[in-house]
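Subject line: Sequence and fold of a protein, written as structure tokens
Area: Proteins and the way their chains fold up in space.
Start of record: The labelled sequence and token lines come straight after this line.
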Amino acid sequence: MEWHHPMRALRVMIRNKARHLFGKSEPLKRVAKRLDQQLGTALHVAAAAVPALIQPRPLRLTVAITAQCNLRCIGCRYGRDFMRGSQLPLGVVLTLIEDAKAAGVELLRLYGGEPLIHPDLPAMVRHAARIKLSTYVTTNGILLEQKIDELFEAGLRNISIGYYGEGSTYDRYVQRRGRYARLERGLEAVRRRYGNQVAIQLNFLIMRPSCNSQALTAAWKLAERYDLTFNTDLIHYSLPYFTEGVDRELQFREADRPQIVDLVSELMHLKRSHPHRVRESLASIASIPDWLLKGPAMRVPCTAYELIWVGADGSVQLCYVTFKLGNLHQTRLRDMLFRDSHREACQNAFRLNCPNCHCERDSRVQRDIPSRLRYSGIQGIDPIRSRSKRGPTHGEVSMPARRPGLDA
């Protein structure tokens, strides 16, 4: 593969040297991570003038292994009309994993639909663990109580779970009775059987119905109860498998800004009080109102050059939204990567020649200096940081021994 670009080669060398020299030293690994982030920022500054500097650097692979789902979430088309009936065969996924590892991918996300429905998920996890490719599974958690033993034996140690409300609120959103109780039983089963050997991240979906202190407090208490890291997802406006709900009930309007700012103030307080549980940066949290209300007008250069997305029908794209590269049923991943089409897609994504989205918003804000300054409150006045209101006070709790390297 002809993919050795100077900046990419330098960053890969730094990562490899860091692993070799620093071993398990967390302070030294943090230094290496900061250096890599600084190089990423320098790349974005230079690429603003010379877009050709943006080259493919696939570090994270997201695979929708099945379009089938056991829920019918109001905001999601999986399990209904998005790639209906599609499911990736085991052989295709194993070859995909091999190609991804060879291309330098460092993190594999298996999701769906609902990935725990796929009968071959344990075999996929086992193969990724065998070749030392870090892997996590995004699940609704409904089947965890039945599936966690086989998945743990296969080597799964990281899970992320979507959160859409508590109790009956959750059940209404997923349009299935009794599912919140099953989610809690799944979380309890993981902790009872494996303790903190399995890191679990809670993804709190910010949408109009959940944009309030009560919903945030309930989600936080669940995270405390089962020792989960806490992350925020935002309701999407451009993903092909998300909807806006009836009469756009899930999407925000400018009139909702006060509620959004209140929620973000509480999130920022939680981040300052519990920095290890809330993994997202303060600057990224502060940017949430603009992502939610500006939509495609939020012009922050994209980091999709580090991504590859695979659909349940075998389609391969640069990211969740667009930039098609091929299909695994006709072409192996290794024969799609680092080609002219891949490089062109990376550069177009960086320049936002696309529907735009808020995926990877943390890395985008961190690497774009104007955004980082603005949302860190260094440039101008940050209305969120100037607020006197504080979020709810929560007690300190012990943290998991392992945390997933997950990106929102």
In short: The chain has a mean pLDDT of 88.
